[in-house]
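Postdoc handover notes: sequence design on the structure in folder B. Input tokens:
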């Protein structure tokens, strides 16, 4: 599934409907090549997707950096 443009908190209910976090993650890949802007809540959702095994393809560098920072923070706790 390709996502594009901006992803923010108001988009999360629709994403939860399309990609429930109890889905079979091996069957899902999110292509983020066309994503230009995400907010903190959207990064949290993407992190949860990745944590259950959903592949994030073509993840913008700034989003990957934010995801890695979230992961590092959780690993330190």
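Designed sequence:
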């Amino acid at each position: 599934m390709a996502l594009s443009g901006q992803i923010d908190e108001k988009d999360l209910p629709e994403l939860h409907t399309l990609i429930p976090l109890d889905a079979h993650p091996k069957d899902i890949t999110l292509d983020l090549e066309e994503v230009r802007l995400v907010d903190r809540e959207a990064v949290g959702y993407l992190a949860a997707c990745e944590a259950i095994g959903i592949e994030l393809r073509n993840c913008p560098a700034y989003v990957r950096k934010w995801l890695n920072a979230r992961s590092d923070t959780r690993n330190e706790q």
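Context for whoever picks this up: Residues 2-76 form one domain. Don't rerun without checking with the PI first.
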